[in-house]
Write a structure and sequence with these properties.
alpha/beta, Rossmann fold, Glycerate kinase, domain 2, 2 domains, 6-stranded mixed sheet, 5-stranded parallel sheet, 13 helices, 13 strands, about 35% helix, elongated
Length: about 375
């Protein structure tokens, strides 16, 4: 019997690998002779680096970079290990690690000033280590600078009318008059970039980066208008400098316009995060011949349908006719819709109504116990 365990993390509680370990431990109690394959996964958002490093026996690289407000912060990215079957040395970067909203105190959030420079520094470090393929997860950013800071960090000169570098932040984009790519990092052209992007917002307008995401980053209505105009000007200069103008491309507005920035300066391709992760960890190949696939995340609800890990895993499994069980910390009332889209059974590990702190602290034990009971039920059904 072959069982594949491919969960996401349980946020604020367990990493994806810890979840996989507890599920395996519970199942082994009942089915000790089964073959278990653990593949911690993610959907391109928070936890993607750790999941993909764990899945491939890779390495976490930690370094100090420029944070959203210009102060040094400790950030990280991952280099995939021997478990990765691709033909290029690959790194995985979460934009939020260097330029995330969590790095800015609530009373200091101001997207007029915040910069994506630190994300560019992570890219440069990876390139300098000989990385040939970089996966970047967008989301959770504190910035609205269109990736201008990132561009400056990788060697682009974004110049004002005096021929000087423009200041950091979204507001300073209005100063931009020219872009010089002469000193762009020489290894960028030798590297392929995939960007996990799960929003389809254009750069500007009422569905653009500033209007939709600006307020959560501290933007007032007046600031939203200012930032939107700044991004329009930025896109105009990009077009004037013979760089491809993707301002209306679905996803260009992701992460404060970083979607546009990675396309313009890295030649990146935007893809759904779950698709990138599933392909990179080779879930389809590892699942071949499996009798059961187990997945899960912290909360299962109707939103799980929209690009979340359990649905990505279920899609791969169902294409091979494999049954799928999903386990979560919490299963909401509307989660039964998932049963119509490739998941065969849903289980919550929370035994009763409990304070959140207690739920989080007992997650490991409750996950083990739930997995053990699921395994017992599965063994009974398989014996018939």
């Amino acid at each position: 019997m072959k069982i594949v365990i491919a969960p996401d993390s349980f946020k604020e509680s367990l990493t994806a690998m810890e979840v996989a370990n507890e599920i395996e431990r519970g199942f082994r109690t009942v089915l000790p002779n089964a073959e278990y394959i653990k593949i911690p996964v993610a959907d391109g958002g928070e936890g993607t680096v750790q999941s993909m490093v764990d899945a491939t026996d890779g390495t976490i690289i930690k370094l100090n970079v420029t944070g959203p407000l210009g102060h040094k912060v400790q950030a990280f990215y991952g280099i995939l290990g021997v478990g990765y079957q691709g033909d290029k040395k690959t790194a995985v970067i979460e934009m939020a690690a260097a330029s995330g909203l969590h790095l800015v105190a609530e009373d200091k959030r101001n997207p007029l000033m915040t910069t994506s420079y630190g994300t560019g520094e992570l890219i440069v470090d990876a390139l300098n280590r000989g990385i040939e393929h970089i996966i970047i997860g967008l989301g959770g950013s504190a910035t609205n600078d269109g990736g201008a800071g990132m561009a400056q960090a990788i060697g682009a000169h974004l110049l004002n009318s005096a021929g000087k570098a423009i200041s950091p932040g979204g507001a300073a984009l209005t100063e931009l008059v020219s872009i010089d790519l002469t000193d762009l990092h020489p290894l960028i052209k030798a590297c392929s970039f995939e960007v996990a992007c799960d929003v389809n917002n254009p750069l500007c307008g009422n569905k653009g980066a500033s209007a939709i995401f600006g307020p959560q980053k501290g933007a007032t209505p007046e600031m939203v208008e200012q930032l939107d105009n700044a991004l329009k000007h930025y896109a105009d200069i990009i077009a004037c400098c013979a760089i491809q103008d993707n301002r209306d491309y679905a996803g260009a507005g992701a992460a404060g316009g970083m979607g546009l920035g990675v396309m313009a300066f890295l030649g990146a391709e935007l893809k759904p995060g779950i698709d990138i992760v599933m392909e990179t960890v080779n879930l389809a190949g590892l699942a071949k011949g499996a009798d059961l696939v187990i997945t899960g995340e912290g909360r299962l609800d109707s939103q799980t349908l929209h690009g979340k890990t359990p649905m990505g895993v279920a899609g791969v499994a169902k294409a091979q006719g494999i049954s799928v069980i999903a386990i979560a910390g919490c299963v909401s009332d509307d989660a039964n819709v998932l049963l119509e889209h490739g998941i065969d059974a849903l289980f919550s590990i929370t035994p009763r109504a409990l304070p959140l702190a207690e739920v989080l602290s007992n997650a490991k034990h409750n996950l083990y116990s739930t997995a053990k009971n699921i395994a017992a039920l599965y063994a009974l059904s398989s014996a018939k």
